[in-house]
Write a structure and sequence with these properties.
The protein is mostly helical and about 260 residues long. The chain is built from 14 helices and no strands. It comes from Periweissella fabalis.
């Protein structure tokens, strides 16, 4: 027990994100190969890895350049694609409210979907998980992704990879993340709405703009569902778990101490 308590931040973070780091390598290599095929030099791939820390965004950049999409259009697509991070950041803000603005800037700069999921899960289940631990998770995942990109860039002139294979790997990864979140039953409704709206809007708009619409619609549905539960089931155990995911664990610890 004491060994765990005295663990340095970097070791706690490494243990938490090691599976993510391992899974990043093959996908990062695939992204590096595509960027190299799109005409990026190694130093450009490194810069993209550091400043556009998003697998979906990098695949979009590579595929768009390979199809001759104008830079303005790519920039606009990236803006809408990455807009979801405003929603993700909001859900973590309550855990970072005591941190300085420079810290929050560094945290926001290196946050992406996967390390967000790791940190949100740790914040929700581990009362000793700190903002520093969360930042270390982001740095370790960024390191793994960048290494994967560099390896892919070095192999890009010798190996080719089909885009459908890459899309399948990304889809499988996001399905796993959704399955983990479905342990909280209240999220089932927004997830179902998101899937249905995503399919309809992508078919309708024939672009990634449909994903942004689906994100906003499902988030709004989740918000109104929570408001409904607050108004009609204020003593609901499910609602308490939404507002304070650690409540159950803290109650068990309190009972054990007594």
């Amino acid at each position: 027990m004491n060994e765990h308590t005295n663990e340095p931040h970097w070791l706690k973070a490494l243990k938490a994100c090691l599976p993510l780091m391992i899974s990043y390598l093959p996908i990062g290599i695939a992204a590096g190969i595509l960027l190299k095929t799109g005409g990026f030099a190694i130093w450009m791939i490194v810069l993209v890895s550091l400043f556009v820390f998003s697998g979906g965004a990098q695949f979009l950049i590579a595929s768009s350049i390979m199809t001759g999409t104008p830079v303005f259009t790519i920039t606009l697509l990236l803006f809408f694609l990455e807009l979801r991070y405003a929603l993700l950041g909001t859900s973590l803000s309550k855990y970072l409210k005591n941190e300085s603005k420079p810290f929050i800037f560094r945290f926001s700069f290196s946050m992406n979907d996967e390390n967000y999921a790791v940190n949100y899960l740790k914040f929700s289940t581990d009362k000793k998980w700190s903002a520093t631990d969360a930042l270390m998770v982001e740095y370790f995942s960024l390191l793994s992704w960048t290494v994967g990109n560099i390896i892919g860039g070095l192999l890009g002139t010798k190996i080719t990879i089909d885009l459908p294979i890459v899309h399948f790997a990304l889809t499988a990864m996001f399905l796993y993340m959704v399955t983990m979140q479905l342990k909280r039953r209240i999220l089932f409704v927004p997830v179902v709405i998101s899937v249905v709206v995503s399919v309809l809007t992508v078919v309708m708009f024939k672009s990634t703009l449909g994903l942004i619409v689906a994100t906003l619609v499902s988030a709004t549905a989740g918000y109104f569902l929570e408001r409904y539960l607050k108004a009609n089931y204020s003593d609901s155990a499910m609602l308490k778990r939404i507002k304070n995911p650690r409540a159950r664990e803290m109650e068990q610890l309190s009972e054990a101490e007594n």
